[in-house]
Amino acid sequence: MRSFFAAAAIAAIASANPCEGIYKDKNSCDANTACSWCLCAAVPSACHTIEDAAGLPASIFQCDKLNAAKATEVASENLFMEHISTHGLSYGTVEEFAFRKNLFNETHAYITKHNASGESWTAGHNFMSTMTAGEKKKMTGYVASPIPASFHNDETPNGDTNWVTNGAVTPVKNQGGCGSCWAFSTTGAMEGAHWVAAKKLLSFSEQQLVDCSSRNNGCNGGSMALAFTYLKSNFAQLESVYPYKGKDGTCQQSSKANTTVKATSYSNVTRNSVSALVASIAKGPTSVAIQADKSAFQTYKSGVLSGSACGTNLDHGVLAVGTGTENGKAYYLVKNSWGASWGSKGYIKIGQESGAGVCGIQEDAVRPTSN
Q1: Is the dihedral of CA 334, 336, 339, 341 positive or negative?
Q2: How does strand 300-305 pair with strand 347-351?
Q3: Among 20-34, 136-150, 224-238, 341-355, whose mean pLDDT is lowest?
Q4: Dihedral of alpha carbons 239, 240, 242, 246, sign
């Protein structure tokens, strides 16, 4: 009886099967992406189109690619459920669940393809894997300063720099869904500048800048240069005194205790120059602007991000805190403000390349000095 049903199934699709008459063995069949080799104990095994293979009785036929596809689907489902559990997510409707799962699958497809490409960096899932482009965009916020740039060149150093191991960098912070990256880049550079001047590491308030740096636009974006201008006239306040809320608020600077720390000056780094940015970083942590809305940046996990995968349309302020070389590739060590679960414990290594640089990192860098 099994032979009868198997033969009948094959006969029903044989006339429309371009794979069966061409490929006579498993290897040649499976080498064609449109075909799958199907085993059957009742009739001779044969090559079928993927569509035809899906119509064969699963109780009789075992088709390689269908089995692999099912295994991949199960693995993807498991990864998605693990992602939900890891990040404490919940969805109120079946439609929302399906929508977020589709976003996750798109991210997973990118990660899988990229990691098989042999590039100099690896990609991986993080909290952004189920977010829309609009939701991710809220986590940027850099806007170019209208103030004419004043460039300064430092001497090129000998050797690499790492302000993290030197003790001049506070733990990775998280801006959340407020476009205040510029404030985090500013405080990071000020923290480093104050450490260089006084050998004391303080954590300064981003919320002070969001609320009080009136030439910037709070959660709607801003410029590190404008924030340094504000800090030339106003004392920086501690994060513990003026904690981060992740939303726009009324300036409370006058009601909170000040430090005596200010930006004594700031200068722009010569654009499109590796040597100039390397020299600036050697002097202290340096605010830089990059493009961060591409998958190459958002899914970064390890290695050195290189090439043109993330573009040069600047939309995100971050902090360059070191330089180094990995597997023959020179890089900038960059501290992001998306929490320690992003990237490599909150950091990314961005390649040193000519011109605007990887992600545009050499287009608009600025470094303050402090007391």
Answers
A1: negative
A2: parallel
A3: 20-34
A4: positive
Which two three-digit tokens encode residue 248?
């726009």
Q: Which residues, at least 6 apart from 143, have a Cβ–Cβ distance to it below 8 Å?
A: 182, 216, 217, 221, 222, 223
Q: For the chain, first and last CA: distance in Å?
A: 90
CATH assignment of 135-370? 3.90.70.10
pLDDT greater at residue 154 or residue 324: 324
Strands 61-63 and 35-40 turn out to be antiparallel
Residue 315 is classified by DSSP as -
Return the closest-CA partner of residue 37 out of 24, 47, 27.
Answer: 47
The helix/strand/coil state of 352 is coil
pLDDT tens-digit readout, 8-39: 444 444 445 668 778 888 888 878 877 888 88
- Write the pLDDT tens digit of every residue in 59-94: 777 887 666 656 556 667 888 999 999 999 999 999
Give the chain's largest Cα–Cα span: 91
50 sits in which H/E element: helix 50-55
Q: Which two tokens stand for residue 228?
A: 């340094």
Residue 224 near residue 210, CB atoms below 8 Å: no
* Residues designated as active site: 181, 316, 336
SS3 state of residue 304: strand
Query: Which amino acid, residue 72?
Result: T
Is the model's pTM score more than 0.90?
Answer: no
**Can you give the pLDDT at residue 74?**
65
Within a 13 Å sphere around the CA of 56, how many CA atoms are in the beta-carbon half?
A: 33
Domain ranges of the chain: 2-68, 135-370
